Amino acid sequence: MKKGLLKFFERIEPDKKKSPFLHTLFDGFFTFAFAPNLVTKGGVHIRDNMDLKRLMVQVVLALQLCYLFGTYNLGHQHFTSLGEYTGFFDGFHLKLVYGLIKLIPIFVVTHVVGLGIEFYYAYKKGHGIEEGFLVSGALIPLIMPPDIPIWILAMSVAFAVIIG
Predict the structure, then answer these.
(1) Secondary structure letter of residue 117 according to DSSP
(2) What is the reported pTM?
């Protein structure tokens, strides 16, 4: 499977001079799937195939339980304030659905704005896509209030990506 995926990436690789934006996008997906073939210079103390991008993916995977409980908790707080479904398992599916209704727009706007800015700057600089937004994009929806206006969310994500 690894060889087939590598052949697929070699077949679809765009020319860097003809379309630098597509090459930047391709490079981001390629380094996500395969470790880059870069050699460090100088004294290296740890030899491991865990690069920074793979470490950040591990952090994002660890945050999935926070998303699951946060989604449930949004619904639980809503229904508790109404005086309905006050038990932990009472209306469990309704609490999850309400939490998803509140969380999905925040998650989508955060990633569309953040990745859009990340791709734009990678294209302008002529570099590959950096993994800096990977963890930020996972943490920002977790710390935002569920009733935040979308335009304030978009401005705060843009500020976080450009300044941070």
Answers:
(1) H
(2) 0.74
